[in-house]
């Protein structure tokens, strides 16, 4: 199995793009940043 590395900047850019799209459908808080751990997704309520 091939291991892949995603740079921090690539991940940050893509998460920010996703957040903008989610904000358009009133889900701006759907992704939470957990400092030192990563990201947490929250479903619609």
Mean pLDDT: 89
Portion of residues in beta strands equals 15-25%
- Domain count, please report it: 1
> Number of DSSP helices?
1
Alpha-beta content class: alpha+beta
Give a quick set of tags describing it.
DNA-binding; elongated; WH-like_DNA-bd_sf; transcription; Response regulator; two-stranded antiparallel sheet; 45 residues
Could you characterize the architecture of this molecule?
This protein has one domain. It is of the alpha+beta class and 45 residues long. The protein has a two-stranded antiparallel sheet. It is 38% helix and 18% strand. The model has no long low-confidence stretch (mean pLDDT 89). The chain is built from one helix and two strands, in the order H-E-E. A hairpin with a 3-residue loop joins strand 1 and strand 2. The protein is elongated and about 35 Å long. Residues 1-43 bind DNA. Residues 1-43 form the OmpR/PhoB-type domain. It comes from Staphylococcus gallinarum.
What topology does this entry show?
Layout: H1 8-24, E1 31-34, E2 38-41
Antiparallel strand pairs: 1-2
Protein name: Response regulator
GO molecular function, one term: DNA binding
InterPro entries: OmpR/PhoB-type_DNA-bd, Sig_transdc_resp-reg_C-effctor, WH-like_DNA-bd_sf
């Amino acid at each position: 199995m091939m291991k892949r590395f995603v740079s921090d900047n690539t991940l940050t850019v893509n998460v920010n793009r996703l957040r903008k799209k989610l904000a358009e459908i009133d889900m701006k808080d759907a992704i939470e940043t957990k400092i030192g751990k990563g990201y947490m997704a929250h479903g619609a309520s």
